[in-house]
Input
Amino acid sequence: MTDEELLRSFSQTLGDLLGTTDLELTLETLRSEVPGWDSFNYINFIVAIEIGHNVKFKVADVESFRNVGQIVSELQAMLA
Amino acid sequence: MSLNTLSQQLNSLDVESDDAFSKLANLANQAVDYLGAIQINRTIDRLVNKPNAVKLAVLSSATCDHLVPGIRLAALRRGLLIEIYCGQYGQYRHEIMQPPSSLRAFAPEYILLSLHADSLLGQISPASSPDEVDAILNLQVESLIQLWSQAKANFGVSVVQQSFLDTAPPLFGNLDRMQSASPFQRVQVLNQKLAEAAHREQTGLLDVSKASRQKGLTHWFDRARWLQAKMEIAPAAALDFGELMAQYLNAQLGKARKCLVLDLDNTLWGGVIGDDGLDGIILGQGTAVGEAHLFIQSYAKSLKERGIVLAVCSKNEEKIARAAFTDHPDMVLSLDDIAVFIANWQDKAVNLQTIATTLNIGLASLVFLDDNPAERERIRTALPMVAVPEVGDDPTYFVDVLAGQGYFEAATFTQEDMQRAAHYSANSKRQMSMETAVTIDDYLADLSMQMMHGPVSQLELPRATQLMAKTNQFNTTTRRYSQEEIAAFADDLSCISFQARLQDKFGDNGLVSVALLASSSADSKTLVIENWIMSCRVFGRNLEGAIMNLLVAQSLELGAEHLRAEFIPTAKNGVIENLFATLGFHLQSTSTTETQIWEISLADYQLIPTYISVKENT
Output
């Protein structure tokens, strides 16, 4: 999957999670820029990605992601 | 079903329509993951028209917010709306001892205590002596018991305690079970002590520990989620947790299923008896398929022994079908185990209705087990209230699918339950006896009925509470009471608590009716029937007349001059809409809420003749 495809899928997932329509995440999006994306929903988002792609993020990575792009690239590394 | 599709389905739901709740319940019946549950949970809140909610507070030593969607989804699948108050992380003691105003305002009906073992057993070390371990475990259970009674006292609720999940890795290995201080064994023993205490204290048990064995600890507990968000139940298992909780509440609300309807060919045995003959069907030791069908029969037999009624509904010649039960040496089930036996060539939907009518239970009490997908589909379409497990096409797994659905979850288990299947069996014999009796009077006189009555004492309290919780047809106000509340009627000398058992020539029907009366706050000369319920097993016997005769007599003894009754119509209690008129009461008013107020002056009461002899419990 390309980064663009993952971004679209992430946007859909986060939109479903938060109940927001037409959410458009970019590689630079920060959690603080998305209303409702608090720490609880951050974990929920990680869970949804893990279930959706059958992967498991390292706890250290989950703590260190600074923006959506870092999640995308870690997922790409795991899917590769 | 992809998430996109679920999102689209949810978005296209008209949240303002009258039947949006049942439409959403249908959507909820598809396979849904954690994210899907979150979406459905949010959609529930958007509905304009909703049924009355059951209010549950989840108080926890861990994070519980992520459990909410799963519980509400599983409840929705059962047609229940649950509103949930989620306690703050680790604040459960405070929330019970000094309830915050938000919790008070929420006014829960149920409190679930979801605690993790480490919060109670942290001070035990692997080097602790057995005595030390035992003392700590006892102390912790004692403290839980106090917490339960505090919760019951502060909120008047039913309390449910979650059993403890054993999340610790092995420490001694194979020796763990022999070391009382091992992390494994301390949780084992704690759970055992917990179950005993909960049973004694009439606190509910949500047995997460037992349920987790099905999919295993790696599914239920994810250390990453524990470290990141203090979630003891992993989000992926939140849906299983929700199913467990909804099953429990469903049973508490009297909505557990009562009757298992069994198909015969390729369900109770392999092959088609009409084609293959008695010798040709596959049943019994020696072949895997024959043993699989034996297992289905044995499980059905166990259900019957715990009070679930069995019925047969088969497309067969009746004589041939019955012959298997009487003549096949490997049959586990006998004709005596089957309360209603229907083998004919009619539509099974019609036959299921006959079964429900004969047993005098609702279609929503039936579970239909059939290997034939066409028959399953027919019933799902024609009678959506009947539960039809999707058992697949391998009889090996029929029992696992059936049991996994939790249809027959028991709220309690009493002596009466053990005898219930026998009651129903006798009942269908009564039904047949009625068909042959000349007149209804002949039939009633012939039944040799005897009623034993008295106040609701400690002895009857569990059964009386259970009966009040699950009776929907003969139920004048459909108010539900806890054991404590019913006991309060018995303790108050200005109130009447009344229970009756009924025997007849076919057997003992057990405790079948409860009435609770309290004096009117406005007029001390008026007693009000707060609620009156009667088991449908004894409908049509004029037991209500015999009971009213006694209630009038007891009311006079208390110095009352009038008896007042409320009748609150529901979708299910239409069977008694003329009850109070028949008993000689006069309709006083009908308010906008449709609650009817009925009254009778005790001086005017005409004793009702019945065929029931009356005996007071001594």
User: Anything to note?
Assistant: The two ends of chain B are 62 Å apart (CA to CA). Residues 543 and 612 of chain B are 7 Å apart (CA to CA).
